[in-house]
Design brief:
about 200 residues, mainly alpha, about 85% helix, about 0% strand
Length: about 200
Amino acid sequence: MSSKSMVYVALLALAIFWAVGAHNRLVRLKNAIARDFGAVDTQLRLRHAQIAQLLEMTGPRLSAEALDQVRAAMAQSGAALDTARGHPSSGRTMAAFAEAEGLLDTALTHLWRSDAAGQALRVDPGLRQVAEGLGSLYDKLDFACEPYNRAVHDFNQAQAEFPTLVIARMFGFWPSATLRMAEQQVSRDVLRTLLQ
């Protein structure tokens, strides 16, 4: 084997080792997204349970239309969350989830702004306690999103760098989406105003 051939073989081996390393790094970063989504998922499940409890407690005092809107939005958000659990690093999946969360927030905002909800929260100490618990879950959700968003940022940055970008596209790694839950929590602010 000539020295020229040996150089080509060495360069090819180096390129293969680099490609394997780049691929493994992307897999590790993608797995970090899934791991960190677990904490977000836990808080979202607790929040959904708390919202369901609030609806059950306030149901008789609220309009059927308002309740139906919130229940429909919760069902949509729950379905989007189920999909997100399976693909927390998919940008499309997480964008659909964020959209469903926005619809739920809008429905809850309308609900909390209703006179019936405000009166129920003022006169029922048990309902007020559950509502305060929901408020603290929103804060925990914001906190849980921080590591997830950092993991998404690290993954997106790594897969966008050249020449890793080539490996990313060859193996189907696409950018993920961060969760900006705090921006979609108008209902939290409305609820807190009612509780003051």
